[in-house]
Automatic annotation (TrEMBL), chains A, B:
Its cofactor is pyridoxal 5'-phosphate. This is GntR family transcriptional regulator. The keyword DNA-binding applies. Keywords: Aminotransferase, DNA-binding, Pyridoxal phosphate, Transcription, Transcription regulation, Transferase. Homodimer. SUPFAM superfamilies: PLP-dependent transferases, Winged helix' DNA-binding domain. GO terms for molecular function: DNA binding; DNA-binding transcription factor activity; pyridoxal phosphate binding; transaminase activity. Pfam families: Aminotran_1_2, GntR. Residues 11-79 form the HTH gntR-type domain. It comes from the Bacteria. The keyword Ribonucleoprotein does not apply.
Length: 492, 492
């Protein structure tokens, strides 16, 4: 322990030592119960007499700062029961500091819960990703030009990547030039940039119910009035949306039309056209979040909203973060007219633009043939896992449990009997090392409590098999218990 | 050109072809002046008679959609002068779409202006940065574990980096454990996360005048009430701040106390203590932005506000982005008590956490000896450039121009005579391939218009010498012209 002693000070050495310890104890640097250095050691260390140290310790003990016991030494005094009130935590004022994070659930749900069998994040098992190839690209890029690490890139993104993204989109019917694209750190940042640019306190935002937790957090943090529209087998219920819009005109409609997260449902072409029609009549924006459309198991899904958008209503978010490299986090936003320059200004304000190296490293994988070959393999792997899980559920889950049958994507949506609260299953599963996402996290408004989201692509097949079997046992146990006991009611 | 023809339709084939072209022309898919396929080709392609195509083309020409010339073919009609009004741009509705970017100046100032002599960004010449070493770290990390690219990291940051940052801070008197730190994408994101967490519409934020443009953009985008406090040779005028706080209690005080951007001034210890005192009495936050404190030219600067903060008022932002690697963009926020978990929730909402690879690659450079050796070299280089520029200015700039004499950092603050608008100098300089930052960009409220910020560390010494000499000539010319002509007045 370093104590600054001034030998010429007006305060005696004893006093200086006492003050040092008082400061450390008051500030919490020394915590109750912590042992002080022995008299012998401290005097040797500070090069002063043992008597001076002893006197200082006695004074500290008298004043109640420390407690000394013969043979054991001196310890910072543990304050008596009422002490916390008497000596308040100096940081308590922070509790009265308002913030603008009314929700922020994603963080809790993805951070909480350690477990071997992780069904909670819609990520792909690292072994299936082209990390080796991207790694080689990075090594090559660095060897060619290490100064790449020493420069900022353009706010909008690396020119080469923007052109590759434009080609990728053109192949999918989206006519957006490189100047209409913005590179973002995953779709999460794309949603965030669109929201911070166009959504403010009281603005009406429509979302599907259920929807992606991270998007709810974003719009909630902007102070938006969030209205929710249920999803059925054809996607967002545009009939209900139309009626709601009469009384609450939208500023933004957020949708995941293809292999919807969390339900796996794909929006029909008819609904897609209706949605665009609504955007036209209300002159509002659609944020089309599309991380999964390349991950179809059978037929390719219907074309994107953006590809049918003639008047610039759609901000299209395409992420390659999940399917190529969560460690490079390359995604883009496509928007026409004056929207993209506003989003670029927001990107500059948020983080001065994305780093260059990951952008350049991912670019070669977007070349048509390379991408198609890779995706075709990935699709097969994802489809196999989906079949594996649904097969096991069919054979072993309780008969009262049902699940979606997605044609692509990474998620299954489990529905329990209406009287079962999925948070019970969540907690029970956690005890057996299974991490799930409780469906309630996916609702911006009043949640349905009897759902669970299962992301089936993070584990290898062996873990997935074992995890699903364990989950089936948990479901049987929970359902049996819930049935036996009194119906659980919320406590007010 | 693919046209969908329905032979059983009630509409004749001619009508269907006409409609197809009209749709394409109306939607802008076919643009004015674009050539249509020849009658022969289209009829062969659609497997219909040439007569049908001819009839369709005639009808389109009659209706003014296309213009045909014997021998040259048919072209989409170029609308006459008044046409743009008659056929409005389908994206015009976007102009009436409100956004929440009231300012966003940084983006404009850093994107605008191509020029060889770049004084506009406070970045360090890439050749001086340890990119080769970081590059080798990256190559090693990838070789050891390519799966690093395939996984998301913890929202708060990589554990190893957090511990290295905690050690770095402890060596500078800041007692923050790894759990009190958050990795951010540069300080820019740190400012942004702090603002989105704690600043909302109408909240009072104090900033220095002048200050960092990117920070103004952030607080303005949150709808904050921004009050500004002038800076003198001792830093922020705490006497004026105290008086303002009486009537406008602060929620946040944003400051760059050490080698202030743009003026280069360092806040005195007395003012630092006063600032903390103000934070205590008003129970508000201080955002201490500290990118430059290791870049001192002579004496080390006074200790940070954070190191003297006992009650958790200070959110301390430390960036290594500028001094180690703009391409890795590693920075951190240090905050105690419950603040850091709120900031981490904001980080998750913004981008799901920073990528792992750059964090791990930068970590070894933070080791005490390695960092000290490197910084000592960088300090010498920066000091030499500062001397070079100020020496040239002294010898060649007009006598009515003055500048700050910074003891560290990357910026000089030029003051022109009060009657000169620095935007004139900015434009004149641009013509001679010199890019400057007009001082007005650094004011959140009413700007002083006679300043320029010179960042002198982005070019090599040769360019810097030539750029400064050119700048001196521009200054002479502008001052001579302004003196000669009538005083320039704002036009209302």
């Amino acid at each position: 322990m370093h104590i600054e002693l001034t030998r010429k000070s007006a305060v005696a050495l004893t006093g200086q030592i006492v003050q040092s310890f008082r400061d450390r104890i008051d500030s919490g640097l020394l915590r109750p119960g912590e042992k002080l250095p022995s008299v012998r050691n401290l005097s040797a260390f500070l090069k002063i007499s043992q008597v001076t140290v002893s006197k200082a310790y006695s004074e500290l003990e008298e004043k109640g700062y420390i407690a000394c016991t013969q043979g054991r030494g001196c310890f910072v005094a543990v304050p008596p029961e009422e002490a916390p009130a008497a000596r308040p935590n100096p940081e308590d004022w922070q509790l009265a500091l308002p913030d603008y994070l009314p929700r922020a659930q994603l963080w809790r749900h993805y951070n909480e819960g350690e477990g071997m069998y992780r069904f909670n994040t819609a990520a792909i098992q690292p072994a299936l990703l082209p990390s080796a190839e991207i790694g080689r690209n990075i090594q090559r890029l660095i060897a060619e030009d290490p100064a790449l690490l020493g420069t900022y890139g353009p706010f909008q993104g690396d020119g080469g990547l923007l052109r590759a993204l434009a080609r990728y989109l053109a192949e999918r019917g989206i006519a957006a030039g490189p100047e209409e694209l913005l590179v973002t750190s995953g779709s999460q940042q794309g949603i965030d940039l669109a929201a911070r640019t166009f959504v403010g306190p009281g603005d009406t935002v429509y979302m599907e119910a259920p929807t992606y937790t991270g998007a709810i957090d974003v719009f909630a943090s902007r102070g938006a009035k969030i209205l929710t529209v249920p999803v059925d087998a054809e996607g967002m219920r545009t009939d209900l949306l139309t009626r709601l819009c009469d009384t609450h005109p939208p500023k933004v409609i957020y949708t995941i039309p293809t292999f919807h997260n969390p339900t796996g449902v794909t929006m029909s072409m008819r609904r897609r056209q209706e949605l665009l029609e609504i955007a036209r009549s209300y002159r509002c924006l659609i944020i089309e979040d599309d991380p999964f459309s390349d991950l179809y198991y059978g037929e390719a899904p219907p074309r994107s909203l953006k590809s049918m958008d003639r008047e610039g209503h759609v901000i299209y978010l395409k992420s390659f973060s999940k399917v190529l490299s969560p460690g490079c986090r390359v995604a883009c936003a496509a928007a026409s007219g004056g929207l993209i320059s506003r989003l670029t200004a927001a990107k500059a304000t948020a983080d001065l633009g994305s780093p260059l190296l990951p952008q350049k490293a991912v670019e070669p994988l977007l070349a048509r043939r390379r991408y198609d070959t890779y995706m075709s393999g990935l699709r097969d792997a994802m489809a196999a896992r989906c079949r594996l899980v649904t097969g096991l559920l069919k054979a072993h889950a309780p008969s009262s449990v049902s699940w979606s049958d997605p044609a692509g994507g990474l998620n299954l949506w489990l529905t329990l009997p209406a009287w079962v609260d999925s948070s019970t299953v969540y907690r029970e599963a956690l005890k057996r090392s299974i991490v799930l996402l409780p469906g309630a996290a996916c609702y911006a408004a009043e949640p349905q409590r009897n759902h669970l989201r299962l992301s089936f692509t993070q584990m290898d097949e062996e873990e997935l098999r074992e995890g699903t079997m364990r989950l089936c046992r948990v479901l049987h146990d929970c359902l049996a218990r819930e049935k036996a006991g009194p119906p659980s009611k919320p406590v007010f």
